[in-house]
Design a protein that fits this description.
The complex is a heterodimer of chains A (299) and B (64). Chain A contains 13 helices and no strands. Chain A is mainly alpha-helical and 299 residues long. Classes of the chains: A mainly alpha (299), B mainly alpha (64).
Chain lengths: 299, 64
């Protein structure tokens, strides 16, 4: 008996489960665009530092990490970056929550317009947006001109090119992510639930604190995590609005790769940035899950 | 009375947040219609000359 042409393909396709075939493109994409580049950088970070050398080899050493962890200069930059990202997340959380509530409560006719307003910072280039802040926060900017002309200040406030300016710029660009993340949780709340709480005598504050806020917690947690990760890995805003190349970890990484050509130390910095992000995010997820469990246990 | 204050406070905070989101875009827009050579605010004179600038041909150093 002769096998039909293409019968082997028929056999193979029957042996491989359908879900494995469906997930294969995603696996290939993740391996190609995430695992391989990160693996490359990881291997590079364990190679001895050689200026201009960008190909990894199997000569492994911890010298890049020992340089990073033994020098307070680099540790301070890592700490500073985490603090700036934490401040950005906190301010974005405080401002993003009421923003999401306003979108949720807005009449359907106006909601899409308000969403466009919230998304406005994302619709233009980060460079243009940053120059907009320069017009406002610069020494001769609108804010300082107003403060001096109203005799509130005698000297202009130094805001531009400071960490405060970096936090302002990051909050501005990341606030929409926070608001939309909380909004996605609020939209899943059954309208009958707040209605029932109101019927049972809950006032506006009690309704919000005991019913709406706990139900919005997953979106809130996701928003904080997104904002923190983006703030920690932001490059353009700290570079244009901050104190320059060695103030934040991302600008330092760029300097090591593109100016100093020390890819090995740059890779070690990148690995530390990734590790710090993963650690902080794991801690945040743990805290949020504890809160959710405690709230569910109370009910 | 307290509810009124809370509502006004909430509305004020929301207006401030929306303004914060839109402020740089508004200022960039205003600066783009400034007639002066430097981006002053408020603009010294309003014109659309930056929008009507003729495009310049980029020439290579060899052509030059």
């Amino acid at each position: 008996l002769r096998a039909r042409p293409g019968a082997w393909l028929h056999d193979v396709s029957h042996r491989i489960p359908a879900h494995a075939v469906l997930v294969l493109p995603a696996i290939i994409a993740v391996v190609t665009f995430l695992v391989l580049p990160v693996g490359y950088l990881l291997l590079l970070s364990f190679n001895p530092p050689t200026t201009g050398e960008i190909h990894p080899n199997w000569q492994l050493t911890l010298s890049n990490y020992s340089r990073l962890l033994s020098d307070p200069f680099y540790l301070l930059i890592v700490l500073r970056s985490v603090l700036v990202a934490a401040a950005t997340s906190m301010i974005a959380a405080v401002a993003g929550y009421p923003l999401a509530l306003s979108l949720w409560r807005a009449p359907a006719a106006y909601r899409s317009y308000l969403v466009v307003l919230v998304l406005a910072p994302l619709l233009i280039s980060v460079v243009v947006r940053t120059y907009g802040w320069m017009v406002i926060l610069g020494d001769k900017g609108v804010l300082n001109t107003a403060l001096i002309s109203f005799h509130i200040m005698r000297q202009p406030l130094e805001i531009m090119f400071t960490r405060t300016a970096v936090v302002i710029g990051l909050v501005h660009v990341l606030l929409p992510f926070m608001a939309l993340s909380v909004l996605s949780s609020l939209e899943r709340i059954d309208p009958a639930v707040p209605e029932a709480a109101r019927t049972l005598g809950a006032g506006p504050l009690a309704l919000h604190w005991h019913v709406i806020a706990p139900l919005a917690m997953p979106g809130f947690a996701a928003g904080v995590i997104i904002v923190f990760s983006f703030a920690l890995s932001a490059y353009v805003t700290p570079m244009l609005m901050g104190r320059g190349a060695t103030d934040m970890i991302t600008t330092l990484i760029y300097q090591q790769f593109m100016t100093v050509f020390n890819w090995h130390f740059g890779s070690a910095l990148t690995t530390v940035l990734l590790a710090v992000t993963l650690m902080v995010l794991s801690a945040a997820l743990y805290v949020f899950s504890l809160h959710t469990r405690a709230w569910l246990a109370r009910k | 009375m307290n509810v009124g204050i809370e509502r006004w406070g909430y509305a004020g905070a929301l207006i401030a947040i929306y303004l914060f989101l839109l402020l740089p875009l508004i200022f960039i827009l205003v600066v783009s219609v400034n007639d002066g050579p430097t981006p002053t605010f408020p603009p010294t004179d309003i014109s659309f000359r930056w929008y009507l600038m003729p495009s310049k041909k980029i020439v290579s150093s060899e052509e030059r």
